[in-house]
Amino acid sequence: MPSFLDFEKPIAELQGRIDELRETASDGNLDLSADIMRLQAKSDKLLKDTFARLTPWQKTQVARHPERPHFKDYAAALFEEFVPLAGDRAFGDDQAILGGFATFRGRKIMVLGHEKGDDTASRLRHNFGMGKPEGYRKAIRLVELADRFGLPIVTLVDTSGAFPGIQAEERGQAEAIARSTEACLNAGVPIVSAIVGEGGSGGAVALAAGNRVLMFEHAIYSVISPEGCASILWRTADKAAEAAEAMRITAQDLKAFGVIDTIVPEPLGGAHRDRAVAIDALGSALTDALDSLVPLSPVELRKERQAKFLKMGRL
């Protein structure tokens, strides 16, 4: 059973009552199946109604759910023959950004993305998905390598933002992010990017400058986190919900603005409730996007990609 978010407390209470009835009925002395079915139907309806009207701040919480699939889950389920490549050939290897060669449904590709980790030890090892300069320089190396061998590129974005520490600034964080974005824009191969959780700031754009940008139904994509925006505008992170509303960070808003191309549906209650279904849905969307780009020449791919992002700044 997934862990419940704050706004899901009524659902959690119903599910707790259902579990209690199942436990009571487990000895076989009482037949509580009718009561269990009635409560389960009520719980399912409440879950459906709740997720049909999520606020941007609630979507932010869903996008950050620790049990959502991460890069390693997608790599294991979608990509065969995954060969990870490490290091930026300049400083070291950043575990927040992973990537390498893979086969995706019969097609040789390069795949890279953010990895947040799924327990305390792995989250610390992967720095919670916050890339450092060497991570973005590794991404540049992999993009250029894919371009050299004519391999389509798939990027999976899930980060609250690039690492803001002083060490990263000393090693050229802003330059590394800019160069990574440039490498994506200049590549002569198809690039399909998917926002699978959080798409935060330049740390996300550095891997998301693709010909096609997909986004999970309950993912978020923004120039700054709601808390960061609230801290700047109102001097308090307590206004994060208001900031999320004003920033238009949801997939539905961004599709309407033309920032993303496709919304990938999630299982009822979020990707964390049925990882296999969510991963398969993303796989189908990636296949469709790659198929639409294969006929284009390198020149056409570059022109289309650059026009796509230049258009976003025009009124």
Automatic annotation (TrEMBL):
One of its GO terms (cellular component) is acetyl-CoA carboxylase complex. Its EC number is 2.1.3.15. One of its GO terms (molecular function) is carboxyl- or carbamoyltransferase activity. PANTHER family: ACETYL-COENZYME A CARBOXYLASE CARBOXYL TRANSFERASE SUBUNIT ALPHA (PTHR42853), ACETYL-COENZYME A CARBOXYLASE CARBOXYL TRANSFERASE SUBUNIT ALPHA, CHLOROPLASTIC (PTHR42853:SF3). PROSITE patterns: COA_CT_CTER. One of its GO terms (biological process) is malonyl-CoA biosynthetic process. Component of the acetyl coenzyme A carboxylase (ACC) complex. First, biotin carboxylase catalyzes the carboxylation of biotin on its carrier protein (BCCP) and then the CO(2) group is transferred by the carboxyltransferase to acetyl-CoA to form malonyl-CoA. It catalyses: N(6)-carboxybiotinyl-L-lysyl-[protein] + acetyl-CoA = N(6)-biotinyl-L-lysyl-[protein] + malonyl-CoA. NCBIfam families: accA (TIGR00513), AccA_sub (NF041504), PRK05724.1 (NF004344). Keywords: ATP-binding, Cytoplasm, Fatty acid biosynthesis, Fatty acid metabolism, Lipid biosynthesis, Lipid metabolism, Nucleotide-binding, Transferase. Acetyl-CoA carboxylase is a heterohexamer composed of biotin carboxyl carrier protein (AccB), biotin carboxylase (AccC) and two subunits each of ACCase subunit alpha (AccA) and ACCase subunit beta (AccD). It is found in: Cytoplasm. This is Acetyl-coenzyme A carboxylase carboxyl transferase subunit alpha. Pathway: Lipid metabolism; malonyl-CoA biosynthesis; malonyl-CoA from acetyl-CoA: step 1/1. Its main location: cytoplasm. It comes from the Bacteria. Residues 29-292 form the CoA carboxyltransferase C-terminal domain. It comes from Sphingomonas aerolata. Belongs to the AccA family.
